């Protein structure tokens, strides 16, 4: 029992190993087409990291220089406040240097913002394209198995009971194969839309016209990868082998990627499958044309059978004799064939012209759409620039006003500090002078007090009691001016005494 269990476990492990190897092969097969994108993404990430590092270093150096200037300004504040008149020029120079650094940084930020705006527009378009492709990939992965089941069932139904089996019994096998191929692959467009198939044909013809050997059939990258995955072990199916295959067939891979980038709903694998389908369709069409041409030529030169009534009347009939057609009938058939060829060539030319006109219309539509998109982007960029310029002018004006207000405030503070310093100096000088003059004033006051005391103690008769009976200086001046003789009184009479004076009109009475 233990051996049976071991054997069953070994078989289960073998099955799991096969499934794991198949999954690894599928993953590596898918990674073969995404390795270039991954490599380009890694290169872009490295470039961005280096750019960020260099920009960060430059910004750090600028900010460090600005920080050093501000630190120097703060260190010199105390020295400038002590003596603002001497260090006023140094203060102005430091402020101008700091403002120059700030304005330079703002201009660099504006230039960087403009460049980032252009990059943002391009990245936005690429992100939209990648988003559409990712949605298509997810839908394809979800509907992959259902589509396979539906196609296999449809092919089985068609092979079991074809609806036109009785009608193609007399047709050549090339025509039947061509019709089977169209029914199995979805018609003349291969389950693509008319616009997608037209774009594919235009790019396919352009790519194959550039090749040196146009008869050489392009190899299929998917077939090569399938063969290499089947022949190699699962452990050797890594990304390096897929990269080598991709380098060996770089032109086809670039073509598939180019078509997939233009037709956003298709992946490079679908483009490769459609290319393979188109090549097989062209081969079947060529075989069908050659078979129809051979059938028409055989029908044209086929002999007309003899009269059947005569042959039927003979009892021992021999093989039917063949009668060749007349030259007039041959000329008529040639004329009809020439006419048919001319009409067919005219139809081909008309179809070619219609196809070229359709391609030209598609090109014009694409150019018109591109032009509209560019105009829309230009309008958005112009509007953004206008708004940014208005905002920048507003910010510049606000900064200028704020700078002017700060300058006036600083000037007012400096003037107030200067006035305070001047008042302090005057008060100190006055105090110093007062201290210097204090001993002299004290001495003068002391001398004045001593003199006053001495005067108060010393009594002297300075008044003349006879002065009351003498002429005053005023009377002497009047008498000298009048030069009139006047009686000389040796004294003042009784009538001059105020309380004894009598009026003139009473003196003689």
List the helices and strands and how they pair.
Elements lengths: L1 H74 L1 H6 L5 H73 L12 H13 L8 H16 L11 H11 L7 H10 L1 H13 L5 H34 L2 E2 L2 H6 L8 E2 L3 H131 L15 H10 L21 H4 L2
Antiparallel strand pairs: 1-2
Characterise this structure:
Helices cover 79% and strands 1% of the residues. It has helices at residues 2-75, 77-82, 88-160, 173-185, 194-209, 221-231, 239-248, 250-262, 268-301, 308-313, 327-457, 473-482, 504-507, and strands at residues 304-305, 322-323. Strands 1-2 form a two-stranded antiparallel ribbon. α1 crosses α7 (239-248). The longest helix is centred in the C-terminal third of the chain and has 131 residues, at 327-457. It is elongated. It starts with a helix and ends with a helix.
Distance between the termini: 192 Å
Write down the Rg.
61 Å
Structural class: mainly alpha
Number of strands: 2
Give the helices and strands as they follow along the chain: HHHHHHHHHEHEHHH
Count of separate DSSP helical elements: 13
Overall pLDDT level: 73
Share of helix among residues?
over 70%
In brief:
With 509 residues, this protein is mostly helical. The chain has a domain at 330-417. The chain is built from 13 helices and two strands.
């Amino acid at each position: 029992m233990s051996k049976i269990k071991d054997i069953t476990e070994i078989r289960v492990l073998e099955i799991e190993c096969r499934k794991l190897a198949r999954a690894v092969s599928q993953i590596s097969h898918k990674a073969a087409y995404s390795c270039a994108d991954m490599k380009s993404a890694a290169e872009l990430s490295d470039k961005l990291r280096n750019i960020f590092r260099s920009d960060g270093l430059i910004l750090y150096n600028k900010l460090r220089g600005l920080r050093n200037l501000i630190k120097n300004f703060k260190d010199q504040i105390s020295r400038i406040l002590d003596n603002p008149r001497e260090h006023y020029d140094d203060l102005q120079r430091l402020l101008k240097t700091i403002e120059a650094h700030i304005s330079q940084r703002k201009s660099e930020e504006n230039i960087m913002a403009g460049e980032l705006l252009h990059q943002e527009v391009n990245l936005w378009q690429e992100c939209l394209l990648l988003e559409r492709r990712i949605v298509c990939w997810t839908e394809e992965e979800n509907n992959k198995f259902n589509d396979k089941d539906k196609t296999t069932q449809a092919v089985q139904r068609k092979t079991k009971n074809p609806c036109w089996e009785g009608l193609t019994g007399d047709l050549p096998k090339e025509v039947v194969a061509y019709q089977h191929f169209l029914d199995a692959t979805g018609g003349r467009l291969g389950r693509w839309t008319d616009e997608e198939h037209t774009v594919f044909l235009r790019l396919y013809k352009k790519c194959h016209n550039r090749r040196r050997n146009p008869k050489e059939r392009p190899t299929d990258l998917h077939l090569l990868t399938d063969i290499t995955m089947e022949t190699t072990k699962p452990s050797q199916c890594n990304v390096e082998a897929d990269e080598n295959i991709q380098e060996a067939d770089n032109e086809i891979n670039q073509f598939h990627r180019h078509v997939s980038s233009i037709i956003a709903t298709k992946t490079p694998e679908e483009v490769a499958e459609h290319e393979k389908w188109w090549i097989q369709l062209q081969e079947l069409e060529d075989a069908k044309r050659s078979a129809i041409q051979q059938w028409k030529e055989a029908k044209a030169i086929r002999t007309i059978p003899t009269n059947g009534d005569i042959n039927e009347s003979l009892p021992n009939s021999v093989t039917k004799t063949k009668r060749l057609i007349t030259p007039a009938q041959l000329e008529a058939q040639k004329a009809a064939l020439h006419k048919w060829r001319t009409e067919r060539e005219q139809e081909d030319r008309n179809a070619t012209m219609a196809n070229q006109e359709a391609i030209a219309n598609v090109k014009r539509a694409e150019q018109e759409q591109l032009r509209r998109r560019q105009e829309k982007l230009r309008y958005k960029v112009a509007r953004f620039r206008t708004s940014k310029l208005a905002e920048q002018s507003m910010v510049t004006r606000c900064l200028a006003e704020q700078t002017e207000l700060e300058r006036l405030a600083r000037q007012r503070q400096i003037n107030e500090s200067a006035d305070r310093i001047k008042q302090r100096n005057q008060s100190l000088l006055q105090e110093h002078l007062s201290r210097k003059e204090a001993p002299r004033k004290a001495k003068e006051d002391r001398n004045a007090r001593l003199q006053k005391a001495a005067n108060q103690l010393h009594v002297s008769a300075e008044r003349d009691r006879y002065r009351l009976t003498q002429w005053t200086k005023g009377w002497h001046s009047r008498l000298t001016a009048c030069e009139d003789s006047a009686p000389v009184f040796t004294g003042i009479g009784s009538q001059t005494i105020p309380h004894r004076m009598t009026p003139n009109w009473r003196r003689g009475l």
